């Protein structure tokens, strides 16, 4: 990795803000897909932070190499954001259940993270949500690429 990949750039900032905003909007679209009794807590805020981090470190470091690379960088960033969101939300739910003594050991807790991630992933199989994530990914990647050529 070149040393310049660690430097702040306008493209990294735009990608971070774009994925952060996409994380918030996608969280709002996702809420009605879950059961009504779901307690979301700081769900949106966690997903915004994940969007900011994935935009800066995943998408932002891949910008500046052409529009095709920007396109794929946006998709990669959103893929990373969805993966980490599923993992963190599943981990949080597993911890909540573990504090209620629902698991007999740590192995059950780890397998519960995977099971919860798959369950939450099936809730995400929704056309408008998938369309939003894909469209947002492409827009963030292309706008970030455009910014990388301008500044």
TrEMBL record:
Domain of life of the organism encoding this protein: Bacteria
Keyword Signal found: no
Transmembrane segments: 12-30, 42-59, 71-91, 129-147
InterPro entries per record: TrgA
Keyword terms of this UniProt record: Membrane, Transmembrane, Transmembrane helix
Protein name: Tellurium resistance protein
Organism listed in the record: Roseovarius gaetbuli
């Amino acid at each position: 990795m070149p040393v310049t990949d660690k430097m702040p750039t306008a493209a990294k900032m735009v990608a971070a803000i774009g994925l952060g905003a996409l994380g918030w909007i996608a969280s709002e679209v996702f809420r009605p897909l879950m059961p009504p009794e779901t307690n979301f807590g700081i769900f949106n805020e966690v997903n915004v932070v994940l969007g900011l981090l994935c935009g800066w470190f995943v998408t932002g470091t891949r910008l500046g190499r052409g529009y095709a690379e920007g396109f794929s960088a946006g998709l990669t960033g959103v893929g990373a954001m969805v993966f980490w969101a599923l993992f963190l939300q599943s981990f949080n739910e597993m911890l909540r259940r573990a504090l209620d003594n629902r698991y007999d050991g740590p192995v059950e807790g780890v397998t519960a993270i995977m099971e919860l991630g798959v369950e939450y992933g099936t809730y995400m199989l929704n056309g408008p949500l998938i369309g939003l994530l894909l469209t947002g990914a492409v827009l963030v990647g292309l706008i970030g690429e455009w910014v990388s050529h301008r500044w």
